[in-house]
Structures are given as structure tokens and as C-alpha cells.
Amino acid sequence: MIVNTKRFGPIHITEEQVITFIGPVLGFNGLDKYVIIQSEDKQHPFEFLQSIEDENLTFIVTDPFIFFKEYEFQLDPHWIEVLGVQSVEEVQVMAIVTARSAEDITCNLKAPIVLNRDRNIAAQIILDHGNYTTKQPLGGKKGEGSDVNPVTK
Hints:
Elements: E1 2-5, E2 9-12, E3 19-23, E4 33-38, E5 46-51, E6 58-62, H1 64-67, H2 77-82, E7 91-101, E8 104-107, E9 113-116, E10 121-124, E11 136-137
Parallel strand pairs: 3-10
Antiparallel strand pairs: 1-2, 3-4, 4-5, 5-6, 6-7, 7-8, 7-9, 8-11, 9-10
């Protein structure tokens, strides 16, 4: 199928690539079908989560464990059941990145996206514990983040 996107133009995707959010991305109720688009540079730690229902909606996402080595949380049994998780190998965790400018780039560690890669279903989950924030800076001192810029494609 062909999906029109504002950022990438028309893209060709298969049904197998469509990720269905069983819990919506916060603030975007009614939009539950997405596809992950990898950066042209395969070494780039950022990907794009593109809505296939709204051509204007694209999130920059990343694996939070790349930037925050101590990041951890226990997935609630409710979400394990709802997402149909059978093993840790089928789970992918992503964090939404917000780039306000090249100097102001943050990562939402408070509400990660948990994806069951085998079933292509996902949910954005709010963590009630831990000291994680929705605006954790990606740049900073060594070990606190990275100077990689997700704004570029």
C-alpha cells in the first residue's frame, strides 16, 4: 500500500509493517496505525514513527537504552498480557524524542512506547515509579546523553 506523508512523501509499506497501538500515543487518540521508518544512515540511533492515518504526524523515536544506560523499568503484568508478550526478545522499547532546536533535544523516559515486534502491537505506557521525566535532555555531560542530532534525516 502507498501512504502519503508530509516528511517523506509517498512511501510504500506492507500490512506486515503496520504497528497497531492498543493504547494510543498520548494526545493522539484515534490515530492507532503507524509504521517505523529508519533513517537513511543505518548507524543513526533515531527512527521515525509515522502515522499512516495522518500524513502530518511523525515522531522521532530512539532506543532509550543507547543514551541512558541506567534506564530500567518493570513492565506491569497487565501490559505483558495486553501486548501478548511471551519473551523479552519480542519486546522493543522506544522513547519519543522532541527536538525544539539543535541545543534543546529531549527524550520522554516517563512514557516509553513498548512494542511487541512479533505481533506488531504497541502502547505508550506511563511509568508511575522512578525519577524519569518527559523532557530528559539528550545532550550534556559524558554519560548523561549524546550530542547526536535527531533533527537531520
